[in-house]
Each structure stands twice: as C-alpha cells, then as structure tokens.
Automatic annotation (TrEMBL):
Keyword Signal attached: yes
Protein name, entry field: Glucans biosynthesis protein G
Pfam families found in the cross-reference section: MdoG
UniProt family annotation: Belongs to the OpgD/OpgG family.
Protein species of origin: Pseudodesulfovibrio sediminis
Pathway involvement of the protein, from the record: Glycan metabolism; osmoregulated periplasmic glucan (OPG) biosynthesis
Amino acid sequence: MYSKNISSKHISLHARYVLSLAAVLSLLTILGPLSMTASAQDEPQSQQQPPQQTEETETPFNREILVAKALELSLSPFEIPQGQVPQPLLDLSYDAWREIQYRPERALWKKERLPFEIQLFHPGMIYDHLVDINIVKDGHSHRVAFDSTMFDYGSNHAVPEQIPDHFGFAGFRIHGPINTPKYFDEIAAFLGASYLRAVAKGGVYGLSARGLAVDTAQPDGEEFPYFREYWIEKPTRHSTNLTVHALLDSRSMTGAYTFVITGGKTTTMDVTATLFLRKSVSKIGIAPLTSMFLFGENTDTRKVRDFRPEVHDSDGLLIKFESQEWFWHPLNNPETLQIDAFKADNVQGFGLIQRDHDFEHYQDFEANYERRPSLWVEPRGNWGRGHVELISIPTNQDIHDNIVAFWTPDEPLPEGVPQTYEYQLRWYSGRFTHPPLGYVESTWVGDSEDGGKQFAIDFNSKALGMLKESSPVLGIVTCGKGAVITDQNAQKNMHTGGWRLTFVIHPDEKPSALDKVLLNRKPPVDIRAFLKLNETTLTETWNYAYQP
C-alpha cells in the first residue's frame, strides 16, 4: 500500500555543491594515487590483503584528503568485502559473540586521562568484514593494529586460534563522562554497515542512524553501504567533542563523512557527508533512521500475545516543514509493507520520536523502552525539493527493526558531481515535543458500535493545560477520498490537563462482496487533525493512514 501526504508549500531547488569536481581532481593530482585501506577492498577478491598488524606508518590526513579518497574510490569497481573473517567466527551465536569483550584497561587514551576513550569491536557473527581504524594527530594518521590480547574471549577458548596473523576490527565505541564527571559511560557506537547509535545523559541505546540508505523498499532489493575505514581525531585534555571521519563504500556510491560528536543531556552529532555516484540509483535516503515498533496504544489488533502493554523503540514520526507546520504521524506495524511519502521541500527537521516515557506503559524490566532515545535530524542549509519517506515493515518480533525514515531528493543525484549534505543529529533521552504549543501525547484506536473506526487523540502541553473547560476549542479533522468523518468532539481531559479529540471514520461506501474477498486492497485514506482556538492553531497536525 502507498499513501502520499503533501505539504502545502513548495520551494525552488537550490544547488548543494560545496566542492567542485575540478577541485577534487586537482587535489588528487597533487597527492598522487591514494592507498584506500589496508584491506584493499576495491581489489579483486583473490588479491585482497588483510590489514597489516604492525603498521606504524604515519600519513597525512584531513577532510580534503578524505574527499579525494572517496572520489578515487568511486572511479574503481566495487568489490564485495567477503572472505576477510574466518568462518568459525561467523558461526558464533549472538551470545557467544557478546562474550568477546574489549578489555577496558586497553581503551585508547586510557592512561592519558583524556576526556574520551575508544574501545573496539571484534569481528564475528554478522559482522563479516573488517574495517580499518586510524588515529589522527597533528594532521597525520596511523592505523590501530589488531592485537588479540585487547579482548577477553570468555568461554570462546578456540576463537583466538582461528584469528589470522593479520586482522582488523568490526567497529568501535566512544566512552566519556556523560553521566558523572569521573566515570566514563558509553556515548556512541559505530558498528555494522553504516550504522551508528548514541545515547544522551540518563538514557539507553534504542534506535539507530545510518550514513546512507540506497534503494530501500525497491523491487530489486536494498543496497547497504558500509563504512570501510575510520579516522578518529585524538582529543586534547580540554576537548568537549570528538571528531570521527569515515569512508563510505557501496556498489553504487562512495562518500566522505565527518561526525563531530558532543555527549551530554542532548548528545549531538554535526554531520558533513559528501557523496559520489558510481552509477545511477533509483532512490537515496539522506540521514536515514531505523527503529522498531511492534505494538502500541494505537494497535487495535495485535499480532502476538504479550503481557507487555506496549513494545516499541519509537512511537511516531515528527516533521517540521518549511511552512513551520509541525506534523506528527504515529507509527504502526502494518499487515503488509507500507510506504508513506510526506512532501517536504527544504525540510526543516524530522525524526523518530519516543514520546511515551512511562514505565507502566511497557512493564519491561530489561528492555527499558521508557528510556529509549528520540532522534531528531536538523538540516543545515537548503536541501531543496524532496520528501520524507516512512517505511513500515510487518513484524511479529521485537528483535527486528521494522521502521525506516529518511529524506530523499526529488531529482536523481548527478553522476560526476559531488553532493554535500550537512545536518545535525540530536539524541534526546527525555520527552521531545518541540512544537511551540500542543503536541500529540497519545493515539487510541478501536471499533465503533456502528462498524467504523473510533479515534481518540490526546493533545497536551502547558499552554493547553491553561485553557478552561469552557474554552471554545475546535477540532479540525479532514480525510481524503474513500472515507467520511462523523461524531467529532473536542473536550478538556480532566485527567491529564490537556484536550482530547474524538471522531469516527467510515468508508464512504459499503464494501462489496469482492471488496471483502480482497480485504486491505483498497488504498489507505489520509486523515489529519489539529486543535484551534478562534483563529489560533493550538497544536501540531496529527496524521494517520486509515485502511478502509
């Protein structure tokens, strides 16, 4: 099924070229041929060489060199990075792989008492290719050599014997004093494909971000770019942030990424991504986010029997349009693959949000869903014409990420011209509402007595709480073709202090016998609702895809 939601205003497409191809080619000419990575993943498989264990050579490094590396890599064929990790390590179970722990006393910069430390991930299980990790200091970099004594293998006694003489890592994590001044907690992790996660003060890990999404939910299958090499700038004693650079590679694209990471009450990542095409692609997703939604308060029919009232890492998609309208779309676990496109020229921000932070709504001692973060993407500059896409994949287990959101441009990226996107990722551990007045607190869905679907939407905020019960608050509800709205009512919610909007929706005509056979084959109907007081809009816009 496919539903398209269109914002009311459009803007002109603006160029996003911050680096000309000529400038990069000039840099390549000055630098000469660049060695891409120690694992030589751009060579044919039979000629690949694993990272050298004792590499100590320092080489010049800055972002311009990284961009030149990405360009040069884009001019060569892509080689699938297979055969780098011995099969016994790939055969490890999740629990066995989890037993392989990096020794905290071996953390990079541990003895120097710097404000950040780095711990490394061991290859194995699903992490089937090696990445090079380099440390940058004073404009020069050197590769971190693999050493099995860095790790405690637990009960995996035979694993060290399976490791080749020359090996590498699967990724890394960043530690720092995010919760207390003296104790170093985990702040962020880069592990697997182009995935990265972070936490804010007092929070736990939840949803993930990615460097790039390519052809997600396309008929020919999704392409998963991966970060093949990292450069981490060594901090000083007074550093408040940590800079990480990454080289992205895939069958169709390469990219040069820079992340400036600051941990705190809100953990932020300032991202600069310069992309190069190897070949044209059908769809790219900029700043992709990945999360899980199994069921929630708006799930009227569950796929599984579970004692927990709700199970989700995120409960809604929030978008800020160029018109300054705030837009809330509750997440759902659909019966079939669902793609929603929300027109968002020059989008001002979007994110997957966890608004419900009440433990009683989850009742899960281990998962701590009430502490899962929200992740907000705020573009820098003008991204031009495009839309935010939300992909919802059916699932019956909470171990699968089934929600994807990203921004995608209307026009295909041009070949031979680097494209740069800048944005900030903000990881929040507490309630994230952001709209200036009222926000959606809850969405409840059930069957009405006359055979329709009944919705109850709770809006809340300090401003709404100040309104008296007699205030002439009006609910504005609209829907697309294929359905009608009845029994609409807005009233003060005396239990929360906010306001509740209720209504019933029906198909605009009774289903035929054929419709009943082809259940759920009709296109979904777009519903929107918000609250007004006289001429003042009180809340963000609530949106839902109703299936007749």
